[in-house]
Amino acid sequence: MSSRDQTDEKLERLVSQVLRDQPLRQAPSSLEARVLGELAARARLPWWRRGVASWPAAVRVPVVAGCAICVPLVWVLSLWLAARLVTVARSRMAGPLATLRHTGHALASFGAITSHIVQSIPREWLVGGIIATVTLYAVLSALVAVGYALLYPRPGPDPAIPRLT
Amino acid sequence: MRAYQDMVFSTAVRLTANPAQAEDISQEVFLRAYQSFENLRSSPKVGGWLKTVATNLTLNHLTRHRKRWRLFSEVFSDDSREEDVASAAAVLDTALTELEADERRARVEQALERLPDHQRIPLVLYHYEEMPYQDIADRLGISLAKVKTDILRGRVAMAGLLAQGGVGAPDDRRRYSSTTRGTPS
Fold it and tell me: Contact, B92 vs B165, CB < 8 A?
């Protein structure tokens, strides 16, 4: 065992001894009154505001039985309702869905025609067109920057602020 | 309740270092005990049950602030040197014996309260609740190495706080002021 381990062990032993020799901390005198007050406040609550476990048996049994019947009933009812809603939605949406389908076909046809046209253009023309567009865009940006620098009036120095020199 | 209230309150206050929070937690412990009164009234293990519930409720309470002390635990690295540990042992070995019981009790409780959360909580769980290192690591969600480091640093810092309170020699006080520096209070 290294000297570090020995000193660690000694410190642990001493701290253990110091802490375990400590008596219990005295609880505040208000603690008992608080607990009893809270219990009294809970006891004053009407039975329906407490947990189901503390309800009277005469109430608890019918409620549990009712829940046992209601839960599957609500489940079956919601399934039937969902099926009914799907049927109604399908019949209502038949017209718009057909329109949407025709629009899709029209767009697909337009895409096919556009693709055919693009493929019929020589590659050199396409590359040249792209280069020309980028060049024109850059020239236009440069012109705007120069025009802004030349034409935009700059405010003079604020007379209220004294110059450092 | 009177027989156990000091034990429950001590468990909570040593972990939280906050008497008001400890009183709230103690109240909750006894309310739960009253809910299980039928099972507990004849059980010989009622003290253990109350202590376990008090520890669990306190740790649940502290977990809400866990990010803060976990962060500090990871930011401050283990810089406790061998001579710090040796000096801490010397302080605890000699200085506390000179004090009266009441003063000694008060000083140790104050030192414990002043430790940062990330050192005090594992230290209390280890020394008071007698939890093994691995259980503390699992319960607090930190690594085993970090638990060991925090407990060791907590012991050194506690000795330092006792020394700062006028117990230890001047050299020890100077050394511990560097050991505990930067720890959140």
Answer: no
Residues of B in contact with A16 (CB under 8 A): 127
Q: In sequence order, what are the residues at sequence separation of 6 or more whose Cβ sits closer than 8 angstroms to the Cβ of residue B23?
A: A27, A28, A30, A31, A34, B9, B12
* Per-residue tokens: A6: 């020995």
- Domains present along chain B, CATH in parentheses: 5-63 (1.10.1740.10), 66-179 (1.10.10.10)
| Residue numbers of B between 73 and 102 with CB closer than 8 Å to A | 82, 85-86, 88-89, 92-93, 96
- Could you give the number of structural domains in chain A? 1
Is residue A32 included in any domain, yes or no?
Answer: no
Q: Identify the CA nearest to B151 among candidates B132, B138, B176, B172.
A: B132
> Could you tell me if residue A69 is inside a domain?
yes
Structure-token match 């594992």, residue found: B122
**Residue in A closest to B10 by C-alpha:** A25
The answer to whether the CB atoms of B9 and A28 lie below 8 A apart is yes
- pLDDT truncated to tens, each residue of chain B (185 aa)? 678 899 999 999 999 999 999 999 999 999 998 887 777 777 778 888 899 999 999 999 988 766 555 545 555 545 556 667 777 777 776 766 777 778 888 888 888 888 998 999 999 999 998 899 999 999 888 899 999 999 999 988 888 887 776 444 434 444 444 444 344 33
CA separation for the pair B12, B23 (Å, rounded):
8
Range of the domain at A51: 43-121
Per the domain annotation, does A133 fall within a domain? no
Q: Is residue A12 part of a domain?
A: no
